[in-house]
Structures are given as C-alpha cells and as structure tokens.
Amino acid sequence: MTAVMVAQSILLITGALFFCIGSLGLLRFPDTYSRIHALTKADNLGLGLIVLALILNVDSFALALKLLLIWALVMLASALSGHLVAWQANNLSLAVRQPNESEQQVSSAHE
Amino acid sequence: MMGVAISMPVILPLLGAIISLLLPARYNNRIAFIFMLGLVVNAAWLLMHFSAQGPYQQVMGGWTLPLGIALRIDALAIIFSMMSCVVASVCGFYARFYLRAKQLKQFWPFFWFLLTALNTIWLSADLFNLYVGLELLTFSAVGLVALGQNKHALAAALRYLFAALLGSMGYLLGIALLYAQFGTLSLSQLSDAFSLTTTSAVALGFMFIGLMMKTAVFPLHTWLPPAHGGSLTPVSALLSALVIKASFYILLRLWMALPFGENAFVIGSLMGTLGGTAIIWGSWMALNQTQLKQIVAYSTLAQIGYFMLIFPLFSYSDPTANQYALHGGVLMLLSHALAKAGMFLAAGNLLICTNKTDLTSLAGLSRYRPLNIFAFGLAGVSIMGLPPSGGFNGKWLLVQSALMQSKWVWLIIILLGSLLSAAYIFKVFSYTYLETKAGDKFEQPSAMLEWSALSLSVLSILLGFFSVWVLDLLTLAEMRMP
Amino acid sequence: MNSYLIFSYAGVALCGIGVFGFIFHSHLIKRLIAFNILSNGVFLILVGLAQNAQKQPDHLPQALVLTGIVVAVAATALALVLIKQWYAISQQTTLPEDQEHQ
Amino acid sequence: MNELIDLALIAILLFMALFSVLSAVLFKAIIFFILLGLMLAIIWIRLDAPDIALAEAAIGAGITGILFLNAQAQLPPQHTQAYTVSMCKQSRFWFALIASLSTMIVLTLAVNQPLNPTISINQPIIEQLNASGVEHPITAILLNYRSFDTLLEIAVLVQVAVIALSLRQHEHIKIHSPTLPNPLLHACLTLFLPMLFLVSMYLLWAGASQPGGAFQAGSVLAAAFILFYLAGFNTPINNHELYLKFGWVFGLSVFLMVGILTLFTGDALLAYPLEFAGVSIFFIEFAVTLSIGWILFSLFVLSQNISLSNVKENNE
Predict the structure, then answer these.
(1) What is the pLDDT of residue D162?
(2) Which parts of chain D register pLDDT below 50?
(3) Is B134 a member of any domain?
(4) Could you give phi then psi for residue A35, rounded to 5 degrees?
(5) In chain D, whose CA is at the least distance from the CA of B119?
(6) How far apart are the CA of A56 and the nearest CA of chain D, in angstroms?
(7) Which chain B residues are within 8 Å of D316, Cβ to Cβ?
(8) Does C47 have pLDDT greater than 60?
(9) Which residues of chain D have a CB within 8 Å of the CB of A84?
C-alpha cells in the first residue's frame, strides 16, 4: 500500500461520502430551493475529490487536463441547471417552507 | 453491367423519394412516370438475364461473402419484384386521380420509400439487411395509414406500429441467437452451416412468431382489419397486396434455405393449423361484416391462411409434391396480390359511387355502374379460385400436392375456404342486384379510376392463362440453390 | 471471459421485463418505454452471446447494435409523434380498445 | 472482483428497469428509463464495446430521454391511482406475466447452450481493414463492409422525419418556441454551443481511428440544436418547410451519390475505389452527421405541443 494508494483511497472515500451527503440533503430538505443547494454543492465537491484521486495515478499530462476539464464542465452545468430550476420554481411561485411546516400551513400563509 | 442492374431496384425508388421530397408538388407525376418506367425496364432486363444465365449473386461493396451484404437474383426474387412493380404502378396511377392535392404531396415520398424497402427485401440475402428493410417498410406503411388524418386512421396506425415493432423485435432476437450459434448473417452460408439445436430452434421460433405477427397470421392479426379497412383506398390496396407479402416472403426464404430435415413435418403442420384457422375464421368474419372495405380486409386474413398452407404441404420424401406445393403457393401469392389490389380499388370506386360505406347502399349499382361491379367481380373470381383465374391454378396445384401426399385435412380446408370466400363475395353481389326505385343517383368516379381497378382484376385473370411462364421461371432455377 | 455470458442473462431479464410492460400497460407512452427496454435487452443478448461464443470482443454485432439503436430511436420518435397526434384528436392516452377496463 | 462489479451493475440495471415499468407516475417511469440508459452505457464499457457505450449515452439515454420528457410534458398530469392493488386483479396482468416468464425461460434455455460457431467474421474484418480506408473496425463495418445497411438506416430516419412533418401538415408549421428568456442561459450558450459543435466534429473525425463516428456526432449536434431552440431563439426552421426537407435529405443524397459514382467506376454498389476510400467515407460521414443532427432536432421541434384548436375532425 504505497503512499499514493493510501491518498487515493482516502480521497475516493471522502468523495463518495460527499455524494451520499448530497443525496441525503435531497431527501431531508423541505423545499426545492434547499434541495438544489444541497445537490449542486455537495456533488461538485465529491466529484472534485474523485477527479483528484484519479489524477494521482494518471500517466499522461493530457489525460489529467481532460479530467480537470470534465470537472469544470460538470460544475458549470450543475450551476446553470441549479439556477434554471430555482428560477423556474420562483416563476411557479413555489413557497419557501420551514422544516416542520406541512403543506397546508404554507399555502394558507402564502395567500 | 450486372452490378448496375442488380442495385437499380433499390437505388431508383430511393432517388425518387429524394427528388419527390425536394421538388415542388407539380413535378411529382413526372417523377413517378420516369422512375416507374425505369423500374419496369430494369425488372424486364433482370428477367431476361435470369432466364439466360440463371441465378446471380453479388456482394455489395465488392467484399467477400461473410463481410459484405449479398443481393441475389433468383426466380422468387424476380417474380416478386415484377409483381411489386406492376401493382405499385397501378396503385400510384390510381392515387394520382383519387387523392386530394395536399394528400398527394405527402403520398409520393412514402410510396417511394415503400418501394425501396420492398425491393430490398426481395433481393437481399442477408438477415440483418432484411431487418432494416422490414423496419423501413413498416414505417412507410404506418406513414401511409396515418395519411387519413382522422381518428380511426391514427388509431389504426398506432396499433399497426406497435404490433410491427414487437414483430421485428422477435425477428431481431432470432438473428441474435442465430449469429451467436453460426457466426454468420448471410442466408447462403447459414443454409450450409445450419443444424437444429435448442438455440437455433428457439431462434427460429422467435423469428417465425415475429414474421407471422407482421404478416397478420391468425392469432396475431388484430391490427390488420382497421389498418387496411380504415385507410385511403390506394393505401389499403398497397398494404394488402404488397406489404404483408414482404414478411411472408422472408418466412418462405427461411423455410426453403434452412434444411429442417425430419422435424419439418411438425413445424409445417403447426403453421398449417394456424393457416387453416385463419382461413375459416377470416372467411367467417368477412361473411358477417356490414362495411364493404372491412369485407375485403377480412378476406385478406383468409387468403393469408392459404399462403400458410404451403408449409405443411412441403415434403422431402416426394419432390414432385414439394414442387407442386411451392408452385401453387407462388401462384396464389401472385394472383392474390393482383386480385386483392384490384378488389380494393374497385371497392374504393364503389364507395365513390355511393359515398356511404355500408352494403345496403349498394342497391341498384349493377344497373347503373356495371364497370365497377365487373372489376370487383373479376377480382372476386380470382380470390374465389374459379377456373380461368390465376387463383384457381394456385389452388389446383395445392390440391394436387395434398392429394399426392394424401394429406386430407389440408385438402378439406382448401375446398371449404374457397366455398366461404365465394359466399362473402356473392353476398356483396346480392346487394347490388336489389332494384331501387330512386334511379341513378350515384356519383360517377372518373374513368381513370375505373380502368385502373379493372386492369388489375383482368391481370389476375390473365395470370391464369399465362401461369405457365411463371412456373417455367420457378422450375428453371433449382430452388434449393440460393 | 464468462462475464459476457452474465450480461446475456441480464439481456434476457430485460427482455422479460420489456415484454411484461409491453403487454400489461395500456398507456401508450409506458408501452413505448417497455418496448425500448425490450430492444435494449435484445441488443445485450446479441453482443453478449456473440462475444461469449467467439471468446473475443466481436466488432460485427457491435456495429449491428449501433444501427439497431438508431432504428429504435427513429421508432420511438415516430410513435411519440403519433401518440401526441392521437391525444390531440381524441384526448385519450390509450388505444380505444384498451379504454373500457381503465 | 470483476464478477462482483458486473453483478452489481446488472442488479442496478434490473432494478431501474423494474421501477421504470412498474411505476404508476409517467414522469417517474421516464426518469428511471433515462437512468437505465446511463447504466447500460457503463455495461457496454464492461462488454468492451466503447462505440455502443457512446451511442447509448448520447442517443439511447439522451435523445430518447428528451423526446419522452417532451411528450410527457404535453400529456395530462396522471391521476396516481392505487396501482399495485388493482394491478393484480386485471386479467391482463396475468397474461403479461405468463408471456414474459415464458419468454425468459425459453431464452435462458437458448442462451446457456455451449456455442462454437464455425465461421468467425472477426479475422476477415481485421485483415481487410487496410483496404477499407479507415483504421477503426466498427466504422469500417458501418461505412464500408455493410454500408448498404447504413444507407437504408438513414432512409429510415428520413422516413420518420417525413411522417412527423406530414402529421403536422394541416396546420402550417407555425410552432411557438418555448419562452425561456433566462439571461444566465443565454450567457452560457455562448460558452456551450461552440464547445458542443467542437465535440461533435471531434467525434466525427476521431471515428476513423477510435470509437466515434457519424451517429454519436449527429446526436451531439442535435443536442446543440435543441439547446439553442429551448433557449427561446426562433430558428428559420419554424416557417420554411424547404429548410427542413433539404436538411434531412442532404446526408442520404450524398451517400447515394457516392454509391452511384462508385457503381460506374467499380462494378458493385458502394465499392469505393481503394485510394479514395478514406476520403469518400469521411465525406459521407460528414454529410450524414449533419443530417442526423438536423433530423433528430426537427423530430423534437415537430412534436412540440399541438394546439388542439386547429386539429379538425376530417374523415376521408
């Protein structure tokens, strides 16, 4: 187990952990806005760690650049789609809900 | 030179489709005339080359066989491509006068893609190429059915599309298993290397079910009556006469190319029972239909039953009976194509006369519009199989083959089927003989429509006189050689 | 090498699920999804079985599957256009004969 | 270790398929179907088929997913009835179950037979590769050995596009484009579109020597067009039918012209002369890529929501 292997496995595990946290956020958060927040932030960081782990044992420099390009593109795409979903949700005037409020309270408070 | 001739049947309609899409609508008729003429001339040239030098096979792209796709010319391919040329040109001519300008503009691209697919299927000797040809055929047929733009046409098109997709998936599954077992896709190599193991048996099972679904054989036929009955007249003529024959043609190719040996009897009699029930059930349903076009559509179901009867009559022990069965089947296919197209066009003319779809409105028609009824009658003669027509020769050969092998069940079914088909055709006639006091209040379809319907019916009768030419073609090339 | 065979079995399972969905669903788009699953299953069998028999990655079935995927997309697009036109005319998402026991 | 990964992949795949078929809500079924497509892309990598993985991800999951979502958006929101309970009572359920189980049993019987094919097409493919004008075997098969198949397949695509157009014929093509005037999206377009075109052309060029080719490049091109259309820009396609038809037929006619040219030089259809093989293949592939991108895009546009008012009930 060389040092690089250890570093790689740590990075991969933490990356996967971030993905799990992201999807956990998706399940737990009450409304769309916070869910988008959870997904875009956690998953990007998770992907960054995994890409870092892959770069450690990649042989050619070009391949490393390609991996970084993938990461940059995913970040751009998720930021854009996150914004679009939030923008569309705002158009449909979806309410911002507190964690313990149920659906009816929000609609009554909203009128 | 032969390379050009063998690929023209596919290239010409494809060029026709491209040009009819690009040029404005007014050039469509000229394009149709030129390309149809080219197709007929090419078919005649292939016929002469075939009768001179026998079957010819050429691999596309100049590669060796397992790599490239082989197109071949043999008796069956020539007969079927000439049949599709004749029927398609008459249906195109009929559509030119029958359809409104807007519909006609959409009709031509589908017509040319349909012809491309048909000629590919007649000529190709490669399993996967047949699959792509079948898909192209299905989509152009669905496009033609959906041309009606009304509720029934769309429902029929959807039902037809889903049934055909399931059928071609079964066929593709068969290809997957056969390729895994034998490692080749070309039909000729497959017939040399073929041996009936469980994998190839399952493969052929799926292929036959898929192809039977696309040919609307008895249990899998529910999509056909609304599709053929509900669509525009030239479309239902094209569908009934040509489209269902393409998947049956592949079934026949597989049956003749692959040596089944002793269990050919089991598979053949299974398919024969399906065919027999199709004849009885189809004729029975046609008998108690009230709509004219539905009667003709259900009679197509019955006639498909006759084609399926070829398989049980095949026998390896008695070569002459085997030859009779094949010749009878091919003649039945040919005469049905001509007669059914003529019958659908004549039924379309009758609808124009009465512009009501049910039978009771036909009263007094034979007095005032004898030509249309005559065309319908001639086509009916060939469907029933009365002596002068091609249908009779086909049935006669099938009966001979059944007698030779003393297979009484199929004999009885053939005769019973002819009786039932006579019943529902005379039923239509009985309505036209009723006198009406109202006199001649029927519209007059344009002469072109009447004569094109009559020409197809007369052709199916003439086939009876000149069927010896067709049979020479079949005997010329020893059928076993691909 | 027998990993190819495992994927052929996965293809068989996909075919089973596809056939079930195709026959069971009367909603046209769900039936179309089942058809796509069935075609993916058939492609898996085609490549998996051929490569298992040839004992090496075989290029011909892969080219066939490429053509098959494009034809499947064409079929899906055609079916979707027809379904939308059918819905526009009849306000139904199922064929007339499937409606009664909805 | 390898078997474990394969089994895990297959388990996820089958779960996706089951959820996709059994879910009551149509939207959920489509999402699971798209996930199924992505899982399948990974499985094609495991099956040493990178070309299919690329095509499955781009066409199978991408374009098909977009078409399904587009269709689902225009159908009525589904009433989610209690699906599982009423499901078993329907006779259809048992009939479907029996049919699927019998197909599976018959197929497993057929699949676990020891197969030893006598003919192997792999050797001739590799040996005659240098005569085919390209280095990548899959592209050689698709555009040289079995180019007749590909010609027909592009005809199938054009055919479907013509049907989509003819179904919209009775109301002129005035399709209102979706309004998504989001400033950020427009800004990102200037970044995404050139990159998508670059990726598409790279895929096309790389097809000669590594996995890639006309179909994958065409679907990436279609994605670029759809993105441009969804951002609310009204492309000229909306009001002129000839643009549509010319774009569709361009690839098919170039393919056919080259085929006919070779017919008169060589003796068989589509037999490219040896020294021009590479060039003619690339020329065909370029035209086909543009056509496929255009066809898939116009299939998306032509199936935009059909305004119910002008669909008249006209019977023949």
Answers:
(1) 92
(2) 81-82, 173, 307-316
(3) no
(4) -65, -40
(5) D152
(6) 23
(7) 148, 150, 153, 232
(8) yes
(9) 180, 182, 184-185
Would you call B169 an interface residue with chain C, using a CB distance cutoff of 8 Å? yes
Residue A98 structure tokens:
């507190």
The angle at the Cα of D151, spanning D150 to D154, to the nearest 5 degrees, equals 80
Question: Which range of residues forms the domain containing residue B444?
Answer: 281-482
Q: Is the pLDDT of residue A97 over 90?
A: no
Q: Which residue has the tokens 């065909």?
A: D284
How does pLDDT run across C59-68, given as a tens digit for each residue? 899 999 999 9
pLDDT at residue D79 in the model: 58
Chain center to CA of B102: 28
Tell if the CB–CB gap between D159 and B202 is shorter than 8 Å: no
Q: Read off φ and ψ for residue B57, nearest 5 degrees.
A: -125, 135
Helix (H) or strand (E) holding B70: strand B70-73
The answer to whether B64 faces chain D, any CB pair under 8 Å, is yes
Report the pLDDT value the prediction gives residue D310, as an integer from 0 to 100. Answer: 41
Q: Do the domain assignments include residue C73?
A: yes
Helix (H) or strand (E) holding A86: helix A61-91
Main-chain phi, psi angles of B70, to 5 degrees: -100, 130
Tell me which residue of B332, B339, B310 sits closest to B322, measured CA to CA: B310
* pLDDT above 60 (res A110): no
Please report residues of C whose CB lies closer than 8 A to that of B146.
82, 85
- Using CB atoms, pick whichever of D106, D264, D266 lies closest to residue B202: D106
User: Phi then psi for D112, rounded to 5 degrees?
Assistant: -90, 30
Interface test mutation site (partner C, options B130, B173, B197, B223, max chain C beta carbons within 10 A): B173
- Average pLDDT, integer, range A47-74: 90
Is residue A1 very low, low, confident or very high in pLDDT (cuts 50, 70, 90)? low
CA distances from D69 to A85, B158, D26, D174 (A): 16, 20, 10, 22
Collapsing DSSP to helix, strand or coil, D47 comes out as coil
B135, B173, B185 member nearest C45 (Cβ): B173
Please count the residues of chain A: 111
**D232-269: string of b/e by CB count within 10 Å (b at 16+)?**
eeeeebbeeeeebbebbbbbbbbbbebbeebbeebebb
B345: Cβ–Cβ under 8 A, 6 or more apart, which residues? B90, B91, B94, B233, B234, B237, B375, B449, B452, B453, B456
In contact, D174 and D239? CB cutoff 8 Å: yes
Q: Is residue C34 pLDDT above 70, yes or no?
A: yes
User: Distance from B153 to chain C by nearest Cα, in Å?
Assistant: 10
Q: What is the pLDDT of residues B39-84, one digit of tens each?
A: 999 999 998 888 888 888 888 877 887 788 888 888 889 999 999 9
Asked if B18 has any chain D CB less than 8 Å from its own CB, the reply is yes
The CATH number given to whatever domain includes residue C29 is: 1.10.287.3510
CATH-assigned architecture of domain D1-80: Up-down Bundle (1.20)
Within a domain: C54: yes
Size of the C and D interface in Cβ pairs below 8 Å: 240
Which residues 195-254 of B have a C-beta within 8 angstroms of D?
A: 197-199, 202-203, 205, 232
Q: Which residues of chain B have pLDDT under 70?
A: 477-482
In this predicted complex, what is the ipTM?
A: 0.91
Rounded to the nearest angstrom, the minimum Cα separation between D247 and chain A is: 30
- Dist CA D28 CA B5 (whole Å): 53
Which domain, by its residues, includes C71? 3-97
Question: How far is it, in rounded angstroms, from Cα B422 to Cα B416?
Answer: 10
Distance (Å, whole) CA B86 – CA B124: 20
In a domain, B34, yes or no: no
In a domain, B367, yes or no: yes
Would you call B172 and C46 a contact, using CB atoms and an 8 Å cutoff? yes
C102 falls within a domain: no
Residue B94 lies in a domain: no
What residue segments make up the domains of chain D, in order of their start? 1-80, 136-316
